[in-house]
Amino acid sequence: MTQTDPIADLLTRIRNATLVRHRDVSIPLSRMKIEIVKVLKEEGYISNFKVIDDNKQGILKINLKYSNENQSVISGLKRVSKPGCRIYCKKDSVPKVLDGLGILIVSTSSGIATGKKCEDLGIGGEVLCQIW
Q1: DSSP string of 103-117?
Q2: CATH 3.30.2270.10 fits 6-64, yes or no
Q3: Which of 8, 2, 3 is nearest to 85 (CA)?
């Protein structure tokens, strides 16, 4: 099956899994998805992830994180830049997510980074998604 937007598929699968309180979710593998999931793990939105080789494309298995009250750590996800309409930010105009309560994931020339890291490094790029 051909996907036109694999990042939107990743976000939708995570969103659907958190809504029904699944502990983990499996997603078709790609390098971009691995980098996005690494950022989510570093920022504390997921507990862990694992790459599974199935002699085809591969599978990315993500373990979701929940609080003691079985409330998901991820409240919301939003795709910003889409294949039909790319959204970019400059180094001095990186947008904030909920006044700093969420994170912005940006694709830069030096890899996938958060909005805060882009400000620190003084680089801009394509705004992929917002997570809060």
Answers
A1: EEEEEETTEEEEHHH
A2: no
A3: 8
Backbone angles phi, psi at 6, to 5 degrees: -65, -25
Residue with tokens 């997921």: 46
Options 3.30.310.40, 3.40.50.2300, 3.40.50.150, 3.30.1490.10; which CATH number does 77-131 get?
3.30.1490.10
Asked if pLDDT for residue 2 goes beyond 70, the answer is no
Q: How far is CA 130 from CA 53, 54, 100, 114, in A?
A: 29, 30, 11, 10
pLDDT, tens only, 29-52: 999 999 999 999 999 999 999 999
